[in-house]
UniProtKB/TrEMBL annotation:
This is MOSC domain-containing protein YiiM. GO terms for molecular function: catalytic activity; molybdenum ion binding; pyridoxal phosphate binding. Pfam families: MOSC. InterPro entries: Benzoxazolinone_Detox_Enz, MoCF_Sase_C, Pyrv_Knase-like_insert_dom_sf. Transmembrane segments: none annotated. Residues 31-165 form the MOSC domain.
Length: 223
């Protein structure tokens, strides 16, 4: 099966309200858009990333989620989960995103992107879906999708092919990284070969954790 984009989604200006919280809005409610969408260095045209501490920036400019994983949750919860319901910008088909290698590069439309990290689910995700234990269930299942860095700007649209043009040999996948960051933290040292491709804002803290686990210096962990 040729990998492709099922949909391209952005939040637009109609942000999800979060009464009593700071920030009091979220860009998680994304909707499919027609036509071509510009891919800039820090995200898609029309997409708003409210809490830049946890979402957005150079290593989280774009978020992809697989139709195959969405189908699992649709069956699990007995509800329709159209593109955008996971807060994703790109709904893909034909790609194993849990098995995507950190540092893997994709040609999508005219843009070039790089896999940087799994998504760690947050409480806003559970509020958006109205499923109180969603974070626990999402974590247990482990199909988190993939954050992407934009290496070459361009444009994308529904139906575009997604071609893996480069894949590092270290074998550190988004699935492994997710486990090492959540339920299997004893595996943190296994992220060392992929650290340089992960979001820059996360690298110092991860290097510190890897150094503690291995007895190496943080500089050595960062390569």
């Amino acid at each position: 099966m040729t990998a492709r984009l099922v949909a391209v989604c952005v939040s637009g200006s109609d942000l999800l309200p979060l009464p009593g919280r700071r920030p009091d809005r979220s860009g998680i409610d994304k909707r499919p858009v027609d036509g071509r969408v510009a891919v800039a260095e820090l995200g898609l045209d029309g997409d708003i990333q409210v809490n830049r501490k946890y979402h957005g920036g150079e290593g989280q400019a774009v978020y992809a989620y697989a139709q195959e994983d969405a189908d699992h949750w649709a069956a699990e919860l007995g509800r329709d989960l159209p593109p955008g319901r996971f807060g994703e910008n790109l709904r893909t088909a034909g790609l194993d995103l849990t098995g995507a290698v950190i540092g893997e590069r994709w040609r999508v439309g005219t843009a070039l992107v790089e896999v940087t990290a799994p998504r760690i689910p947050c409480a806003n995700f559970a509020r958006f879906w109205g499923v109180p234990d969603l974070v626990k269930r999402f974590t247990a299942h482990g199909a988190t999708g993939a954050y992407l860095r934009v290496l070459e700007t361009g444009d994308v649209g529904a139906g575009d092919e997604v071609t893996v043009v480069e894949q590092p040999a270290h074998g550190v996948t988004t699935g492994l990284a997710f486990r090492a960051l959540t339920t299997q933290r004893y595996r943190i040292a296994q992220l060392a070969p992929a650290l340089a491709a992960m979001p820059v804002k996360d690298q110092p803290k991860l290097a510190e954790r890897i150094a503690r686990a291995t007895g190496r210096s943080e500089a050595a962990a960062l390569g």
